[in-house]
Amino acid sequence: MANHALLNNVDHKDLKIITSRSADYGDNVMSAMTFADEFRSVQAHYPIFFLKQSDTGKFQAVAVFGFEEGENLFLDANGWDASYVPLTIERQPFLIGFQAATGGGSGEQQTVIHVDMDSPRISKSDGEAVFLEHGGLTPFIERINSVLHTIHEGVQRDSAFVAALLEFDLLESFTLDVELNDGAKYRMAGFYTINEEKLGELDGEALAKLNREGHLQPIYMAIASLSNIRDLIDRRNARLE
Amino acid sequence: MSDSVKHVVIVGGGAAGWLTAGVIAAEHCADSQSGLKVTLIESPDVKTIGVGEGTWPTMRDTLRNMGASETDLIRECDASFKQGSKFVGWVTGEEDDYYYHPFVLPQGYTDTNLVPCWRERHSDIPFADLVSFQPHLCEQDRAPKQNTTPEFAAVANYAYHLDAGKFGQFLQKHCTRNLGVRHVLDHVRHINPAGNGDIASLQTDKNGALTGDLFIDCTGFASLLLGQHYDVPFVSKKHVLFNDTALAIQVPYADDRVPIASQTISTAQDAGWIWDIGLPTRRGVGHVYSSAHTSDNEAEAALSQYIEKLSGTDTAALGSPRKISINPGHREKFWHRNCVAVGISAGFIEPLEASALALIELSAAMIRDQLPATREIMDVVAARFNERFLYRWGRVIDFLKLHYILSKRSDSQFWIDNRRTETIPDRLQELMELWQFQAPSRNDFFQIEEIFPSASYQYVLYGMGFRPAGRETIRRSDDARTAERYFQESAQLTRKMLAALPSNRELINQVKRHGLQKI
């Protein structure tokens, strides 16, 4: 059960955050939410798929780490086996919150940082400090702040990206059947990817529009990311040995 | 002078007119210069019938093929999902008397004959409950899909309940904005005949003479072209299906948390039956009855009693119901010369299985698929259309009559009269004799695209307690083990679906907020 508290240098003066990557701290997840702005970094290591959010039915991009719930093939005894960790993983246990802006009645919202006090990463003794001795921000929390803002803006811009994909009919549903060396079979269904055929048929006007709006690059990044499926299979097979 | 068919004129703008316009315009490129020209003329003075709120699952494909959006349908037509019909009180009239006719085929239907195993080992379980998950979904007011299911796709086969008036407007918008249908709002004063007896043009008040190559009569009860102008005789079926009047009314919900029903409810009465269709914002309720067996006052009282029992609503506050006269039957032929009737102008029957919109879809589809290229070939197409739809009307009447002949009620003359042999069509009598010994199957029905599949006959027959004698010797396709496997499968699917499917209200609220994806 999440227990979100507004981060402040009084209640959380001595707060420390364990940043090691491990199943003990909840990193054993099959996927994490990502967004178009991040695709360039994500595609170097992880397949990017789209799936429908269960509450709204709207499309959402995810970086995939494994073939079943709870399986993260990048986690090992040494931590996370890749040079880039998706931002929605890195930000934990922090999340962005909204508060009515001070200077009352304007109706504007300002963003603030919340921390999930039930997270196993919370510590008094181990890990990164959040606040300096006199209440200032550590470089660690400044980095977190920047990560949260990048996610927030990225997610907001993502709805335009998804709308463009739908406008040009560039998403198609996708079922991947995987067979491992030990004969185990997995079916990944309910995912969507870029429809390369439709992409190839787009005329100059459509491509120019996508390019102008900054959607063309993430489209190709998503396509490129699919070669990481092979890598995922190899990682899984390696664990069988 | 070319006799090419290049311009289709549809007269009348209700569901029949606009569905036909949309189906034809989409296929025949009415939005293109080189496509068929499609014009719909409707009178500002003539109202549509205003009821007609249940569809069949075929409507999903009809709308999808036309390029319409299911999200828009749900948002604009006060639509909800229909998974079949629940018939209450049709057999004995006792409290526990009901059965389902769902849209989903029995589990394993095409693979084996489920009936003998049901009869021998599970006859205490209602047939539909054993062979299908759908009645269980309906009993719990569940939706037939999730918010992540694409538009028009189903988890459980479904159709729609919708507001008839809003549906017409929705179709009109789609047809005129997206499909290139020309809309003329004007009154047709009289028909101008051609030398050979065809319709040359329609004389309008403000737009002069409207010419066309094919005229589609969607004028409802007036049957302006086929009935009035051409005087094509009407074949009454009142001696088979007695109901000739309907009283229709709308009933609000007590609040917005009352569950939306997943099916049409049809409750038998002394001299007819009451329909109950649950839309998100209100119910459409109506009493269909035989004026020969009851009076208007008694019928209205029965309707009030139903509404009060159902929702505790004080019916006095609702106002008077609307009375609609039904002449059960159809025209002797539907396509005459260069005029074809679709909808009520072709015929009308009590809405016991919501066949009216389905017949419109089927008519529009055949006109679309077989649209004559020239006037010369039109007579061939017309003859084939007439043959096909006379057959289909016959099947509709047979199937509706089946609901009456299987009743055991004798608490009123209406029910007794309905079982008199002279009111039962010969073909139905013959099939009933056959079904004493074997279950209804595809082999009993000869046309491709039968209007009611054999599974529907099974649902009604066995839902109403028909107990066949069966045969004395065994046969391979009656294998009990295969049937048991399918009964298990159906039970498993029921469990999975009940766990995964939202209620109708939940889903509709989600769709209103977020829409459904196309893929």
Write the layout of secondary structure elements.
The complex is a heterodimer of chains A (241) and B (519).
Chain A: E1 4-6, E2 16-17, E3 31-34, H1 39-42, E4 48-52, E5 59-64, E6 75-76, E7 79-80, H2 87-90, E8 94-100, E9 109-116, E10 122-123, E11 128-129, H3 139-167, E12 171-179, E13 185-194, H4 196-201, H5 204-212, H6 216-225, H7 228-240
Antiparallel strand pairs in A: 1-9, 2-10, 2-11, 3-5, 4-5, 6-7, 8-9, 12-13
Chain B: E1 7-11, H1 15-27, E2 37-42, H2 58-65, H3 70-76, E3 80-82, E4 84-88, E5 98-102, H4 115-121, H5 127-131, H6 134-139, E6 159-161, H7 164-178, E7 182-185, E8 188-193, E9 199-204, E10 209-211, E11 214-217, H8 224-229, E12 234-236, E13 245-252, E14 264-269, E15 272-278, E16 282-289, H9 296-311, E17 322-325, E18 329-331, E19 335-336, E20 339-341, E21 347-348, H10 355-370, H11 375-405, H12 413-418, H13 426-434, H14 454-463, H15 480-500, H16 504-514
Parallel strand pairs in B: 1-2, 1-11, 2-7, 4-14, 11-20
Antiparallel strand pairs in B: 3-6, 4-5, 8-9, 9-10, 12-18, 13-16, 13-17, 14-15, 15-16, 18-21, 19-20
Task: Provide a quick synopsis of the model.
The complex is a heterodimer of chains A (about 240) and B (about 525). Chain A has about 240 residues and is of the alpha+beta class. Chain A has helices at about 40, 85-90, 140-165, 195-200, 205-210, 215-225, 230-240, and strands at about 5, 15, 30-35, 50, 60-65, 75, 80, 95-100, 110-115, 120-125, 130, 170-180, 185-195.
Structure commentary:
- The complex is a heterodimer of chains A (241) and B (519).
- With 241 residues, chain A is α+β, with helices and mostly antiparallel strands.
- Chain A has one domain.
- Chain A has seven helices and 13 strands.
- In chain A, the strands form five sheets. In chain A, strands 1-9-8 form a three-stranded antiparallel β-sheet, covered by helices on one side. In chain A, strands 10-2-11 form a three-stranded antiparallel β-sheet, with no helix packed on it. A three-stranded antiparallel β-sheet of chain A has the order 3-5-4.
- In chain A, a hairpin with a 6-residue loop joins strand 4 (48-52) and strand 5 (59-64).
- The longest helix of chain A has 29 residues, at 139-167.
- The radius of gyration of chain A is 20 Å and the shape is globular.
- The mean pLDDT of chain A is 93.
- Chain B is built from 16 helices and 21 strands.
- In chain B, the strands form five sheets. In chain B, strands 5-4-14-15-16-13-17 form a seven-stranded mixed β-sheet. Chain B has a six-stranded mixed β-sheet with strand order 7-2-1-11-20-19. In chain B, strands 8-9-10 form a three-stranded antiparallel β-sheet, with no helix packed on it.
- In chain B, strand 8 and strand 9 form a beta hairpin.
